[in-house]
Give the backbone structure.
Amino acid sequence: MRKEGKILLILLCLFLITLSKPGLLLEKERAYQLKTRLLPRVDMIELLADGYKEAVADYFWMRVTLYYGDENWRKRADDEDWGYLLKLTDLVARLNPYFFMPYYFAGVVFPWESNYKKEVIPILERGMKYLPDEWRIPFLIGFIYFYFLDSKKRAAYYIQLASEKKDSPEYLIKLAARLYYEAGEEESALLFLEQMERSTSEPELKKEIKRRIKVLKDILFLKGAVQKYVETTGKEPEDLEDLVRTGIIKEVPREPYGGRYYYDRKDKRVKTSSELGKRRKEK
Amino acid sequence: MRSIIAIFGGTLKEGVRSKLFWGILVFALLLFLSTMVVSELSFAEKEKIIADLGLSLISAFGLIAAVILGTDLIYRDIQNGTIQIILARPVKRWKYVAGKYLGLMAIIGVNLLLLSLMLLFVLLIYVGKPCIYLLRSLYTIFLELSLIASIGVFFSTFSTSQLLSSLVTLGLFIIGHSLDILRMSAGKSGKFLGFLLKSLAVIFPDLDFYDIKIKVIHGLPLESSYYSEILLYTLGYVIFILFLASLIMERREFR
């Protein structure tokens, strides 16, 4: 073949490839979106992967991280795409339930970036079963309940569970107590703090817990007094001083955080202005 | 042209007679039967499962045939000296490569045809209707295999080990299906490595283009231009790779 012929042949090949590539890329793009929405049945995969579940889990985990790591995917991902990613994450956690990362990923990524919030909780609850020493899993559930699902009571329960795990940070104890308090569950908060106080040997923490116990006991005491006031007078008190004036209590206890106790007529609850030593951020 | 046809005929005859060809075919047929067993595990969508597994098996065994036979074809002629007899006649080397390649494609075609008939037959029994729509996927499988076979032929023109050629061809198949990962890694790597990976992603044929199994099985639409575009894309690469193989053959001396 002559030199010109060879060059022409190479140019022809390049022409054919460049001519067909844009259309094919478009088609691939569509197939790519489609692939991110189809997943074989989980039980089928579990059955077929028997004996190699960990390796198959790793493979699917790689797919999760590849999709999520791709900025373009995140930009164009819609509800169905996120749903697929959640299914994939769930599959990894099912195939290898002792693998912490899928739980962490589910708890940290989905509630923030997608519309899947409560759907993450069953996955995390399964994680709690398989990784009972891991405090971060109940903490994540607690956080999701608190921040996204607006359920302080459930949040407090899970944060309490997290705080009871070995190596969990100490602030969880305070956080759980505060959440219980905010949810109007002073009794639960008190029980929890008393239990924590008994199991803590660290003096600073013990002191702090005792202070909170004092606040909660005061609130419970005032709550009882308000109830008595309502029974006696048939109306709600304007403020806590009414309880003193009617002789139900001698005085309103001193709030150890420097705040004051007050009666919130709207919520029908005794509250503290210090919010258990933690003021809310200025809005 | 006559010489190409003669080499093509010889290669096809040789291929169909080889134990390897029949071995692959029989093994594939046996596995085909297993798809029926596996489909029984599912309470629904047996058609989808048989089609999924069947097409994957056809693709996988076609790949094995393309890699092993492709890398063996010219290599064996060189090893046993047949090539000297052929080239002693007035046969141009590019015609020799083209004839060998076309013969190989005919063997792969026969393999694909038999397995496809088997798949359609199994589906006919299970579903009670001819699932002709699967031919669309078989078309792209054939085109993909023809591209892989050309790579195998290319390596067989200069490699001194068939095993090595097979492994490299297989490696390129994997890379061809992982170009997205290459592109993604390029963005996260250093300057030089990033450039290298990006270049590889541009040069290598994107084998994901051929994977339309999902769309076909789920009856989803495909652009009508897709079929011609994928043909042109394959032709572009196959002609280029065979051209390189011919160049190497022209420069080689056979004693």
Notes: Chain B is about 80% helix and 0% strand. The mean pLDDT of chain B is 83. Chain B touches chain A at residues 41-42, 94, 180-181, 184, 206, 208-209, 211-212, 214-215, 218, 220, 222-223, 225-226, 228-233, 235-237, 239-240, 243, 246-247 (CB under 8 Å).
